[in-house]
Amino acid sequence: MNIAALVCYKPGERSRLIYRLHVYRGRKGKPKTFGWMDYRDLILHAHAQLGAPIVLVWDNLNLHLVPGMKTFAAEHADWLTIVQLPAYAPDLNPTEGIWSLLKRGALANLAAADLPQLARVIKRALKKIQYRPHLIDGCLPPTGLTMRTGDDDITN
Question: How much is the pTM?
Answer without folding.
Answer: 0.81
